[in-house]
Amino acid sequence: MTNQSPGNAIRRKNRASTKLQPDWWSKSFAGAVLGLTLALALAGLFAWVGPGGLYAPDKRQFVMWMIAPLWVTVFSLVYLIPTGKRALLILGGLNLLAFGLLFLVRFISEGRV
Amino acid sequence: MKVRSDILRIYRSLHTWVGITSGLLLLVGFFAGALTMFKQPMDRWINPPEKRMPWIQESSLDQLVAQVMEQYPSARREFTLYPIEREDLSAPMVWTETSGGRELDLSAEQRIASLDSNGNLKTDIQMPSRFGDLVDMLHRTGGIPGFTGDEYLGVYILGIAGVLYFLALISGVILLLPTLVKDFFALRYGKNKKRFWLDSHNVVGITSLPFHIVISLTVIVFAFHGEFYEALKEVVYPNQERAQEMGESQHRNPQDILPPSQLLQKVRAEAPGFDVTEMLYMRLDSPRPLVRIAVYKPEELVHGPVTGYVGVDPYSGEFLLTAMLPGKAEGWGAIVNYFFALHFGSFGGSLVRWIYFFLGLSGAFLFYSGNLLWIESRRKKLRKNAAPDTLVTQPRNLQWMAAITVGATFGCVIGVCLAMVSGKWMHAVSDNINYTYVNIYYICFAVAIAYALWIGVGRATWHLLLASSLSCALIPLTSFASWLIPGLGLWAYTSLPVLMVDLTAAAFAVVLMFAAVRSRRRAFSGNTDSVWSAYKDKKSQAPGLDRKEFPI
């Protein structure tokens, strides 16, 4: 009978909402597309601020090689985000942040040159 | 380790779906990839002897090149020298009259050249056997024909499969976490066949996980590197088109190139202890000429599938490219070399090649067993929902999936083996042996799938295993026949790498035969509601029949 108390019902509802939802399409889209663009931005940041600077010999190759592991790591973990909507929001936000940083770094560095 | 059940449920679905969609494609890629480890020995096994020319001293290469440059304008753009003799090579100097392009040209004739004992130039035309290159193409495309732009369509599709494959690896590891300690290395061999298959699937997957992660990542990069570079150029790197300063684009006269012996000397000084196996002269009449020199030392970590490379200017002898020379790369370039070497298994001589060969085959096993496990789990589900005491009949799509899995797997094995054998048997009658290889492969592949669909997977499995075993056996038997009956016009070499090809094929013939016997037993004595049972292939057979007397 105590189960019927309003407090427990709310708690149960909360637990249900933290349960992972499959949301295959939205999560997979977030992983496949937003994960890829995020990987591109992170690799780009590494190109500018990582060791050796932008034009270290052969670094462009290494930067290119970074994209795939970053991308698929994000892709494979995106399903841990509870809902598809939140996955889109989180990855979208991270994209904005990473690209914002990348363009900031580019702006500062190129301005200095 | 505890993992929440909702996480497990989602990653189980993910594992199932990426496995089912990409498994068969990756299976073909892994099988052919394992074979590419010994691409050169297979080519040595196959190459017909009748056009082969005598090799010449290294010092005579200078004379050979000078004479060809003078007499054959068609060689003045691109040619290749092979200082060291091998059975898969026909002459120390080779060029194609119509060269260029990275794709495999199956109908390009080669002109081959050498010197006779008096130092006079002799040349011939041959249609080279490209069996090794075709296996390599099967490896890179999964056998999917066609182009998009100037790249093979199959390469892109395998790139996508590489992404799905990585998802399958991660989800598979997550699924295993709760029972990792208990199940690890536990091979429960008993009545429950599914348990055994699942245990093997897990053990192989976990023990070779680093290899699989490396392969999946490199496959993605190999497929999409052009797109990635393009994206980096657009978004990351400053927009300064560093216009290639062409200088005065002087076109040099290919007759002025340095003698090869001088280049060989320079390269030996730069890379002591290495054999020079190939010198590819490129763009000789252009402003940017290059000799790509392949250097080989078994135990060294190298950038290429077999050899390292060094780029030299053919006119000045200046080193243009040393980043792919083992030990000479520095910084980021050296790290990138590791990525290539880890995919190609080119860092520890024959031992590593053998390890990669078996890792590649174990990868193929992973996809094969994965598909079978999915089929079995679906069967379980159906049986649970069925009324007791009724024999569950498996739905069509499950039957089809099982048949396609078995047909594709063994069709691929049979196709490659028979194509290889045809290199000797069809050599005399085929206009272009390369098209024979391709046709035989695709016919075998298609027929095996059609056969499994038609006859039912229960019987098709052991029939196709038997056919695979016999196809493998044909490889050593062909060598044996050439020795036994000289009149057949066959040939066989006796160098160690070639003998190993025969020996390995014989060993696999035995293993596959063993598997065929086991599989037949299961078809007639296993659960009759399984797709692997041969009973339901004949509707009239009831499960109460004496199983031993079941007609084949």
From TrEMBL, chain A:
Could you tell me the superkingdom of the organism this chain comes from?
A: Bacteria
Q: Which UniProt keywords apply?
A: Membrane, Transmembrane, Transmembrane helix
> What residue ranges are annotated as transmembrane?
29-50, 62-81, 87-108
Protein name as it appears in the record: Uncharacterized protein
Organism listed in the record: Microbulbifer thermotolerans
From TrEMBL, chain B:
The cross-references to InterPro entries, in alphabetical order and at most eight, read: PepSY-ass_TM
Top-level lineage group: Bacteria
> A Pfam family this protein belongs to?
PepSY_TM
What is the designated name of this protein?
Answer: Peptidase
